[in-house]
Sequence to fold (1245 residues):
Amino acid sequence: MVSNTIQFVFENKVCKIKNPDPNKTILDYVRDDLKKTGTKEGCAEGGCGACTIVLGELNKNKLVYKSINACISFLPNLNGKQLILVEDLIEKDNKLHPVQEAMVKFHGSQCGFCTPGFAMSLFSMYKNYSTINNEVVEEALSGNLCRCTGYRPIIDAAKSLNNKKDEDKFKKNQNKTINLLKKIKNVDVEINNRGKIYFAPKTIVNLKKILKKYPNAKILSGGTDLSLEVIKLRKQLKTIISLNSIEKLNFIKKTKSTIEIGAITSLFDFQNFIKKYFVDFYNILKRYGSLQIRNVGTIAGNIATASPIGDTLPILLTLDAKVIVQGINKKKIFPLNDFFISYRKTKLKKGEFIYSIKIPINKENIFKAYKISKRFDDDISSVCGSFSFLIKKNKIKKATIAYGGMSEIPKRASIIEKKLINSDFSENTFSKAVNLINKDFSPIDDMRASRNYRLSIAKNLLLKAFHEINNKKIIRII
Amino acid sequence: MRNEQLIKGQSIPHDSASKHVSGFAQYTDDISEPVNTLYGAIGWSKKAHAKIKKIDLKDVKKSEGVISVITYNDIPGRNDVGPVFDGDPIFPKTKVEYFGQPLFAVAATSTEFARKAVLKAKVTYQDLTPIITIEEALKKNNLLFDPRIIKKGEPQNKINKSKNKLKGSFNTGSQEHFYLEGQVCLVVPKEDNSLLVYSSTQHPSETQQIIAKILKQKSNSITVMVRRIGGGFGGKETNFMTSAICALLSHKTKQPIKLRLDRDDDIIITGKRHDFYSEYEVGFNDEGKINGLKLKLASRCGMSPDLSYAINERALLHIDNAYYLSDLEVKNYLCKTNTSSSTAFRGFGGNQGMMAIENIIDNVARFLKKDPSEVRKINFYGKNKRNITHYGMKINDNVIQDIFKSLLSKSNYKKRFKEIRKFNLKNKFKKKGIALTPVKFGISFTTIHLNQAGALVHIYTDGSVHLNHGGIEMGQGTHTKIAQIVANSFGLPFEKVQISSTNTSKVPNTSASAASSTTDLNGAATLNAAIKIKSNLNNFIKKKYNIFSKIEPIYKNENIYFGNRSFNFKKIIQEAYLNRISLSSSGFYSTPKINFDKKKFKGRPFYYFCYGAAVTEVTIDILTGENIVDRVDIVHDAGNAINPALEFGQIEGGFVQGQGWLTMEELVWDKFGKLKTFSPSTYKIPAISDTPKKFNVEIFKKGSNVENVVNKQKTTGEPPLMLAMSVFFAIKDAIASVSKYEKTPKLDAPATPEKILMSINKLKNTT
Fold:
């Protein structure tokens, strides 16, 4: 069955929109059509969090709440979800929600413009955690900028919610909401809005059929990058295929030797899974965009956009990841190292999509990764360095070194690798090897960092990795 | 005001807090538009300096949804939005002077259509050489005004005679305001060509006057209303471009227009903080006491004067910070560059002047191998001696020594100073640094006539109070504090006072909400109105109830007490109304005692000074330049604070904003004058993890105001931003450890990880 109507739960009712504009953002829908102006536009690129809304989703019959940036999410993404806006938090008798009460009590708002976004991020934090410590707070609010308060009162407000019993109206309405969400018939969506077409198939079979017919369509999962073409470049995306309804692409599978991540698995889900295996991968993912971005963004999306500064890419290169590409007829497997061609270009052909990513687990290797940026939270790397070594009897047996921000694609430092392999694992070896950095890379000057600085930290990160391994301790300030 | 009861610190929430958190606080973009509203967008220059050969707007006009397009031909009156001087054409006729300068504008049936349409313009330019940096402008002598020289004593002579001398140069960077609510305006045409203007401005009166001038109408035909703005920080003080263009579009189409700048456009089109470059020569004794100082102080002003003269003047007035400079000369250069016109930003040049002197003091201390806090201390202004500023003002409210002493012990500075040096010996890659810096900041507009304010207070027959004044609520809580003043004056609960939108038809000829003086000025004007109404009431009660005693009545707990007799406020209001007593009054205030001769650079430009000091401890990673603020201790003087909760908000928020300015916030222009950092993805303001890990803020316990300021408070608007200077100098201290404190690092602001690492590398290469 195919439907041209999206359905979502809003204010305890199922709302339906027939053929919505697939290039319209949820933010514009909320402000212009629903006339709910509590959700603000701060930057319209997912960088400030003023537009944060929360989506309730059914996951194995349980409601999960995700904060997202309404400004970079297209309207059809609401399909099958519960839309929660800042105006909805307040109880019937005008009583503030506990997160709102805390913000008032701790003087967490000044000009108030960013505040609705903070309230929504706090709301999803409140719904998802009962123990609330610094780490939880900083993650929950990493995508919300405030220019007035300096954040201290907001952090205090957030921490005051620790171990508070969740008795809000969403809890009380939980079963009703679940029933409403279940009522929404889960069917393939096919929208045609004045020539703008949008598909959200449920199965890979249907996806392939659509791809065959529309090989030039833009494939969307989180859409945090793709949406900017509409919002920033003011282009029109004529044909979009969303992968988000294909449950089969949402998975993390682990065998003894590999971890496989499906194309639409969110970075947030992945981040929590990978912590056990590669803690530095987790550390960097925690600083990948903001929680709002990681709630929808995917590893596959990061690979497909092939940005030279995509933070997961040097790490995946170092870990020898493979990309599983699904064509109309068959699957292909690319080592990630062969996947990038040039600036934002990959070997992905028309009509193909990334099915999954496989990461080998090799417990003998020592893995280290570092991200250097102007700001800790939600910033793009000046340089991201990732290192994996196999050391036996103080000899370097294997060295896999990759950097982001050093060339037009995320790239391995093959000359340095060669120099290191079969050398002693010693300061002398590394001090010499780092001087080859200019042979491997010729980075550019831009607004994030100068060429010299990039070269300098690229060297120093490799030295840092050596010292950390050598001293068996973490030498970092952040 | 003398007989008014002072409020002793009532920490109530911001009046709009509940509305902020629930999304019901309305900003300009949230006002429901009239049905026939059109939406605007601005087309701007893609060159920083060029002659305009041709602007072809055919495709713009044909673009979907476009109703009207305007150019300089559609301006009936003045084609300029410059507040003091000309130089900011709305649409230039012949020449563009910065990348992002507006050239034309569009009204369409939706914002999306308007924004798409402006991209279709075909503009032909003839390139001229752009001047982008201070260095280039100085070299080509491209200045807005003749250099200004201020001099006191015999600095060169004193330097020559000094045992120790240092020379050097120093830069502080620009800063984008990044108010969360961008520039936005809604103009609704009314009868008789009059306009109702809703604007996100800090300065409704000037918005009114400028629109009147560009439309060649009288000011009485323009009404500007502002309920609140989503942050200003100076960026909405003179940025009249948005409201001017919005008014022009409405004038042309005779329809309501909303013009909301896209974030990128906002950052590209509007002005930012002035970058400053300084060169100095200083002579000092072995204790570090400064004998003589010569400075060259140059700023990047952008393509027009805007407020640059006043901003540079404030830099000159704060070149002393908290230090007595007996012999001083400063040459000030206002560089004209092909960049957006640099404008007001919290601190208004004061902080750039203060950074220059703090850097000098820091270098003096490092040269003498002394704890910089000691050198700061011995240079402080004295209470009875060494208390005349370089502009001839006697300081009679100096509390910096007291604050310094209190902060030293509260922060345990001396002990930590030693511990940090030990830590740095033990750690190869992580280095810590600590710094204590003071703040002394002068309060009043240095343009004397601006120090005035008006208010309007009504009491309705049910006893409820309607409050209006000329100040803008931009987050600082001025409405809350002024409502507290009114409630306190009438002895009413806070809830009985209704705060209303700032409105040029209620209170005319107001000054910008700026210079930290909004509550001082408007609070006093409001109190003046309340006192007038109370006088009417008192006279009425006395007459009606035959009270002959001379005791001042007390307004408290919704009653008015004349000795033993009390009158219920609500009842007496009804009675007064029936007896035809006026229950409404305007109020007015002008700051006393101030004067300033700009030519001679002499006088008393400030009514009083704000003081504070901060100790900051940081850790840096010397392999990467990454840094973290571990701990901050602050003691700040807020006088007799009306609402300490709001003052804490200003102090902490100001600090973090200053921390951003001096660490991560970096604006980058390419050599063609194109701004490369114009969105949150490339321009980074502090985020949640940047908040100091330990943040101990104390309002100075002995704080008061020696002057008769409303409630004896001291403002906390701008001064706390400068407390963040301690972050910068703590980073410099950490870098110095790399040379075992033998050498002085060269570090310019902002101290980004890159600048820090490069400074470390340089230090390593010279040791």
